[in-house]
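User: Reviewer 2 asked us to show a designed sequence for the structure in our supplementary figure. I'm pasting the structure tokens here. Could you produce the per-position amino acids so we can include them in the response letter?
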């Protein structure tokens, strides 16, 4: 159940800069393995909207990437067949012989090899969970900034390292949640803490474009990832769901009201010598303080309803 947070939004609207850096609610579980970075980034993003409450449950629901490999196998077997020979115009001789036959068969075997899901599989799983999600390949900084300006977290696939050597190398990919930008930096949440970290735009682009010490054009691993698994450079996933859009709209309305209230107080400061203005301002401040205490009381009331509403 979404709690009322008007008092916090009042402060945020007055003190925050333009909508270039958004903060997410803290989570208390972090990535515990080598593959669930996409799961954790999803959990962190949806937890901010009270649409996911458990990293473990999300991990069970989304699961790991499934690869299908073609295995070609030669099968040799001995078969019996009848061979007949003509001995004359009216006679022929038949005998049963054993032959060795070799045939080739191709089997597609789904395998889980300990890595997370790519953009299309992950977005599909999030949509199945109940939040419509869109994967986008070869995105741009303009795409990131547009979504951040809409106050939407962006699941972003980065190459954080490279293993192997030259044509046999492959990228180590990692999902993070991008939440902010400015002229020089990109801001994001990793899967191991609640700290919002920054990275210089050029360095971010190298990792996002998979151009960080990896021969991405010629590597056969790249061809397999892009052609067979649908994993491309500069991949993102964003939310396009009415539930989130409604929450964002309400938060924008609350922030706008808070900003207007702050402006009204600022305009009145120059007229406080007038006793009438001073008295009205004091009453408005009392109402604002009362509203803050009502926020707390309403949240306590909603918390008390949770056990009742969860009963069958």
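Assistant: Here is a per-position design you can include in the supplement:
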């Amino acid at each position: 159940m979404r709690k009322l947070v008007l008092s916090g939004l009042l402060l945020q609207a007055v003190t925050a800069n333009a909508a270039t850096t958004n903060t997410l609610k803290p989570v208390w579980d972090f990535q515990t393995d080598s593959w669930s970075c996409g799961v954790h980034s999803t959990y962190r993003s949806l937890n901010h909207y009270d649409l996911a409450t458990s990293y473990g449950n999300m991990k069970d629901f989304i699961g790991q990437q499934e690869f299908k490999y073609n295995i070609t196998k030669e099968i040799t077997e001995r078969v019996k067949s009848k061979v007949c020979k003509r001995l004359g115009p009216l006679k022929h001789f038949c005998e049963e012989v054993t032959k060795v036959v070799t045939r080739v068969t191709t089997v597609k075997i789904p395998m889980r090899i300990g890595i997370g899901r790519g953009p299309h599989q992950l977005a599909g799983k999030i949509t199945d969970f109940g939040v419509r999600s869109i994967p986008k390949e070869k995105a741009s900084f303009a795409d990131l900034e547009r979504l951040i300006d809409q106050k939407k977290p962006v699941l972003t696939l980065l190459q954080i390292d490279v293993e192997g050597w030259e044509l046999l190398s492959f990228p180590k990919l990692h999902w993070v949640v991008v939440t902010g930008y400015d002229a020089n930096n990109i801001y994001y949440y990793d899967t191991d803490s609640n700290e919002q970290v920054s990275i210089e735009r050029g360095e971010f682009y190298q990792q996002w474009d998979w151009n960080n010490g990896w021969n991405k054009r010629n590597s056969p691993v790249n061809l397999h990832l892009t052609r067979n698994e649908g994993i491309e450079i500069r991949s993102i996933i964003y939310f396009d769901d009415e539930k989130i859009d409604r929450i964002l709209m309400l938060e924008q309305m609350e922030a706008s009201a808070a900003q207007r209230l702050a402006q009204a107080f600022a305009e009145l400061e120059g007229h406080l010598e007038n006793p009438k203005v001073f008295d009205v301002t004091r009453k408005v401040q009392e109402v604002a303080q009362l509203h803050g205490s009502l926020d707390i009381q309403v949240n306590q009331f909603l918390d008390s309803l949770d056990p009742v509403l969860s009963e069958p």
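For the response letter, you might also mention the following. The chain is about 40% helix and 25% strand. The CA atoms of residues 6 and 254 lie 7 Å apart.
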